[in-house]
Amino acid sequence: MRTTLTEENYLKALFHLVDNEGKVTINELSKFLNVKMPSVNNMMKKFADKSWVIYETYKPLIVTEKGRKEAALVVRKHRLTEMFLVKKMNFGWENVHEIAEQLEHVHSTIFFDKMDEILDYPKFDPHGEPIPDKEGNIIAQDLQRLSNCGVGETVIFASVTLSDDAFLNYLTERKLLLNTKIKIIKIENFDKSVTVEVDGKREVLSRKATEKILVKK
C-alpha cells in the first residue's frame, strides 16, 4: 500500500530528528510538525503496525531499519528534486524547497530514478545535504559548525543545517556559496559574531548564522 502524504511528512520528520541511537520522542515530533501530541501518538501506533518504529507508551520511539529506509527514500525524492530544479531549471538554491515539498509526494520510482540519471547521480543536493541512494543509504559527512572553528582557520563551506529561504538569501547576498573557502579573521567576545574573509572580501556573520553553516577542513 502506498504511503500517504501525511505519512511521508512524518517519515521525513523522523529522518531529521532521530538521534545516533535511532531514537526520537513524541514531543520532538509534535513540535517539529506543529501537530498535537494525541495525533502524533495515533500516527506512531500506525507506524508501529508497519514495523517502521518500536512504540511504547511514555518511552522514546525507536526507528527501525525498515522505517529508516522509508524515511530516507522520501528525503531522496525531495533532495533529487531540489538538485534538478537548480541544475536543470536554473532555480536559485533559495527557491527550490517549497516546490520540492510538493513533488516529493509523487509515487513513481521511475520518475525519480530518471531524474537521478539525468543529473548523473549526484551525491549531494544544492544545500550540501547528502542524497540517499535507491536503497536508502546515505554518505556520512565529517562536518562541524562554523561557530566551533577558531581564528586563523581556513575551512570550506560544505552544507547548511537549515535551508529556509531567508537564510539562503542572507548567504547569497554575501556570496557565501557551497565549496567556497572561508578564513576566520576575528571572533567578537561580546556576541560571538565572526569576521570572515571570502574571495578577498570581509564579512561579519552573526552567531545565529555561523551555527547554521557547516564546514570541512
From TrEMBL:
Subcellular location, record wording: Cytoplasm
HTH dtxR-type domain location: 1-64
Keyword Zinc carried by entry: no
Signal peptide: none
Keywords assigned by UniProt, alphabetized: Activator, Cytoplasm, DNA-binding, Manganese, Repressor, Transcription, Transcription regulation
Keyword presence, ATP-binding: no
Major location (coarse): cytoplasm
Alphabetized PROSITE patterns for the sequence: HTH_DTXR
Reported function: In the presence of manganese, represses expression of mntH and mntS. Up-regulates expression of mntP.
Family: Belongs to the DtxR/MntR family.
Subunit structure: Homodimer.
Name recorded for this polypeptide: Transcriptional regulator MntR
Source organism: Chryseobacterium ginsengisoli
